[in-house]
Design goal:
The chain has 9 helices and 10 strands. The chain is α/β, with parallel strands linked by helices. The chain folds into 2 domains: 119 residues, Cobalt-precorrin-4 Transmethylase, domain 1 (3-Layer(aba) Sandwich); 111 residues, 2-Layer Sandwich (Methyltransferase, Cobalt-precorrin-4 Transmethylase, Domain 2), CATH 3.30.950. 34% of the residues are buried.
Length: 292
Amino acid sequence: MGSANGSGRDNDRDTTSRAGDGVLTLAGVPIGRPEDAPPRLAAELATADVVAAEDTRRVRQLAAALNVTIGGRVISYYDVIESRRADQLAAELAAGKNVLVVTDAGMPGISDPGYRVVAAAVAAGIRVTAVPGPSAVTTALAVSGLPTDRFCFEGFPPRKAGERERRFAELAAEPRTQVFFESPRRVTATLAELRASHGDDRAAVVCRELTKTHEEIVRGPLAELAAWATARDQESGGVRGEITLVVAGVGQAVAKAAARDSAREARRAARFAARAVARGAADGPADGGVVG
C-alpha cells in the first residue's frame, strides 16, 4: 500500500528484490547538450553510493554542468573491463549499495556498457530501474523523415569486410527502417557498401553531432550520400563527430511483390506435385500387377 499522503512510494519497490539489496539504476545521459539531461539524473548523481561511468572524467564534467556534487564513489565501467566490473557491482548491490550506471552519451546497454551488470543483477534477484533519457537511436529516427512505425537497430556494423558484406546483403531485403552507429573514420566506406547492397536509390540519412552545436542532418539516396562523404574526405579531411545512419527499409510495394512471387511459386510447385501424384496413381504399378 502507498503512504497516507498518496505518494505510493512503497509500490515503486520491485517485489522480486530481496530485502537489504541495493538498487541498480541505468541513467540516460545527454547525447549533446547538458541541459537535455532528465531532471532525475542530478538527484541520482548526488545520492548514489556508487557511480559506474564509462569515462569518469566525463561524468564529473557532466555533474559540474548540472551544478551537482557526486555523493558516492566513482568507478570506471567501460567495455574492456565490463565483465569484471559487472561482478564487482553485483557484489556492491548485494551489500545494499545503490549503484548508478552512466555512459558518455545515451542509455547504458545500447551499444555501450550496461548489459552485463543488468544481467548479473537480474540473476541475483536485485531490483533494476532506469532514468529514461536521450538516445541517438530514437533521435535520429525521429528527425530522419523515414518510416518510424517499425525499425531495427543494428548498432555498429561488423568491422571485417566479409561480415559487413553478408550483414548488409541480409538487411537489403529488410522492410523495417534500419539505424546504425558508425565511426567517422569508416562512414564513407560504409555508405559505399550500403549503396552496393541496398541500391543507389535507397533513401537514407546521415545524422552528425545530433543536438550539438554543429549538428548536421544530410538526407538523400545512398548514391548521393556516398558521393557527399567522398567529397568531404577530399575537401575537408572527412566526416567528423558522432555519426548515426538511418536507412529506409525495402519499399512496401517491392516487399509485397516479392511475397506474391514467393506465394505464386509455392502454388505452382504444389500443383506440379499434385499432378505428379495423380499421374502415378493413374498409371498403376509398372509391372501391371495388382496392388494390395
